[in-house]
Amino acid sequence: MVSLFWMFEITTNPDSNTLNDQNKRHTLNVNTEKIANKDMVTSMKSSTCVFPDVNIFEPSVVAIAGLNLSTLQCDEFYLPDLTYIQDTTIIVNTSKVQQYHGNGTFQHCKYRHIWRNDSDDNSYIYSDWSDPFTDKIQLPRNSEFVRVQCWNIRSELVSNTYMCLVPRKEEFDGLYLASLKKREVESAPKETLNVVMIVMDSLQRNQLIRGCNETYAYLMNTLKSFDLTMHSQLAKNTFPNFMPLFTDHFEHEIDRWWNKSLPMDAYDMIWYAFEKAGYRTTYAESSDWGAFHWQRKGFIQPFSRFYPRPLDLALNDDKSLGPLSKYCAGSQLHLNFRLNYIGRLLDTFSDKPVFAVGMMSKETHDDQSYAKYFDEHLLNFYKWMRAKGHLNRTLVVALSDHGTRWGKFRDSVNGHFESRTPFTILTFPEWFLKKYPDVAENLRINTKRLTSHFDTHATLLDLLYFKSDYPPPLPPNRYGLSLLKEIPWNRTCKEASIPAEFCMCGYREVEDIDIHSELSKHLSHLLIKSINEMIENVCAQYKLTQTIRVVKVIFQGSDTQKQQGDALYKVTVKADPGGAIFEAYKEVTGIQNPWTFANYIFRLNSYKGQSDCAQHPLIKPMCYCKNLLG
């Protein structure tokens, strides 16, 4: 008998070609000279784990990488912002009023607050409208999120602007002061740095280098950042990759005591440790497929002190925001909205430690070639932080949750590699690296060592109690190693807790199997059988229509046991109804056990509109609802 494992993945459809149509006039301009540390993107000879030697600028991949796109600006697609915020005052921009309403047609503006609904994390509450104003108006103390609208004398809407503020919330000052003092007295860490995490959803490292060429060059050449070139993902999509990053657990470990009908307040999120140590915290993410809210209840209490989810929900519900509302919050980019919010937090608490996460869910989730639209905006944020002095007291972690999961990059010659290699880039203050040359050397070495987000988690906690005189009040790391210390040169995927199906160490496709062979037929039918056994009773049963490919693969450092006669196969099939395309890795061993199923089956094409009847997020990608059958 043989044993076998499968894996699957969640997808959504990309938007229409609205953005593509804007850029047909542009020509391809790849500036490879701005790519720093080119030796880091080849096979890593300093480690026993060797990643496949993949050409980032493979011509067929460059052709689909969106390098002809120009920076996305939202103000040309929507109503102008006739107001702006200064401290806690909303001010009418008289020059813009003159520009757009110089003939005296402007009437007045009003605002209303956007509040969290304390009984439902997935809804919000609007206040009543303010009194009308034509010049400026003072906001109440502790205002956070407001919507400002302006009208002309014909009562037509002429401006619709969302704003966010970061009040100091003085009522918590004593708590934070005591927490910082407790950390200082009981642990005596040598340094206290802010932590800012900028997360790009679904963006593989290679496409970051291609599409965000200017930002990457600035990080590597100017800020002397550390690019973890052998960083591996740990699971299929955002949530199960966020669990190692933010909780130091695999998703299946949490599922032993939690299910999606329960609130998530019992999760041991990493920012709770920072909050307990006296840090102001925020988590800012778009709402419609939020990592902690998609088909989940969210939280009873806001899970960070500064919690802009009500604003994101209001933005998501506003259907008047124009043709690019997925990327634009009116005349402002969603990306800049979140970055500016983090910037306000850094400005407000320039004398206090901050832990901030900005999750950019919409920008590259459906199409990673859109990265170029946002390159200049990301670059400008780094330059702003540097000019304001924030980089001098902050660790900035630029990262993604996982690589591309479906579509043109997944189908490319580099698709398998780019589907399993997210990026993580660490930017430390220059003085910090000079003061601690041992840490700087370890970080340099670790850029060419096998790493994962378990290590990112361990690094953040190590920094929180950096070189403490006493043991930190934290549980031991379950899986990860701090990047502030040297990662072993001979580390394997098993030792790094990287599941076999995501291991890139020595990965090589060695033999295509005849799709008409008995082995191919057997594995293909078995894959469909396993899917049919997993799906809910509201889903139709699949029938195999095509074996697309069966290939034998080898890799080193996995957590699978290699014995004589063992083999690993990658199988891609097509099935009806719905023309679903699935891919699975199957380990066939000589062990005398029944076939067993574990891990994931990947869905490689869109299932939008096919699986609305399915309730469980893991079942949706594999479901074709019975009520759609003719």
From TrEMBL:
<dbReference type="InterPro" id="IPR004245">
    <property type="entry name" value="DUF229"/>
</dbReference>
<dbReference type="Pfam" id="PF02995">
    <property type="entry name" value="DUF229"/>
</dbReference>
<dbReference type="GO" id="GO:0005615">
    <property type="term" value="C:extracellular space"/>
</dbReference>
<protein>
    <submittedName>
        <fullName>Uncharacterized protein</fullName>
    </submittedName>
</protein>
<dbReference type="InterPro" id="IPR017850">
    <property type="entry name" value="Alkaline_phosphatase_core_sf"/>
</dbReference>
